[in-house]
Design a protein that fits this description.
Its EC number is 2.5.1.141. The chain is flat, with a radius of gyration of 20 Å. By secondary structure, the protein is mainly alpha-helical. It has two domains: 1-170, UbiA prenyltransferase (Tetracycline Repressor, domain 2, Orthogonal Bundle); 171-305, Four Helix Bundle (Hemerythrin (Met), subunit A). Helix content is 73%, strand content 0%.
Length: 305
Amino acid sequence: MSQTTLGALPQSASTVRDWFDLLKPRVMTLVVFTGAIGLFIAPAHVNPLIGAIVILSIAIATGGAGAINMWFDRDIDAVMRRTASRPVPAGRVAPVDALAYGIALSVLSVCLIGLATNWVAAVTLAFCIFYYVVIYTMWLKRSTPQNIVIGGAAGAFPPIVGWAAATGQIGLLPVLLFAIVFFWTPPHFWSLSLYACKDYGAAGVPMLPVVKGARHTRWQILIYTILLTAVSLTPVMIGLTGPIYAVAAALLDAGFLVLALRVLRDRQDATGTSLTGDKPAKQAFRYSLAYLAALFGAVCVDRLL
């Protein structure tokens, strides 16, 4: 189904919930959290009001980028079961309205953080929006099975934005937090794509299990989880974090590695398709969300104490 066709769908009345859903609130929650951690651990005092404006700016930017993503992806969202009920493909919000909404929020977020803090934070936030909307959504997502690997950088910028808002510069620790999110994204999203493979295949999105198969994806999940373990322990090895983070990272990494091995060893047929309904992949996906929240929480506690 073409985007033009979808744009001509009859519109039903939209609700406040529809406009809220355009912001991708689940994604926003995690992005805002990692951005807030970058702000809180920065070696500079931040006025509480300014801190609240920074967090609000990151939330608005995430929502704006999400709305533009839903505008552009309305054709493939209409095909996939888990996204077909979104406001744009379901006809509750007109595509042009979703686009205008997303652009307005994106511009507002950059202006807000720039006026409240500094140009380093504003430029970084603007590039984050650009990366997600143009580089990931409009280019990588539909062109390469490495879309999640390269595009993962889009969700990794918030800690840098938070730190830059507090200090006016970019430090080594937020860059390492960026790297953690970057290497966390592939095993997180590929775990989801294993059991959503049919949806992506029907929509023509070249996700790794669609292009390379389930078995190859299982190995990649393990490989990237090992890389994530190495990156997550780097702040400890170079003395940027203390014992609280060290213990938390070691335990969390051990749990992730165990689940990645279970995904690899899941009962499969000759093509690598799970015979258990991808139960290990679903467990790994849920764990990955808790992993990132707990790891970043440990950074914050470690630095505060």
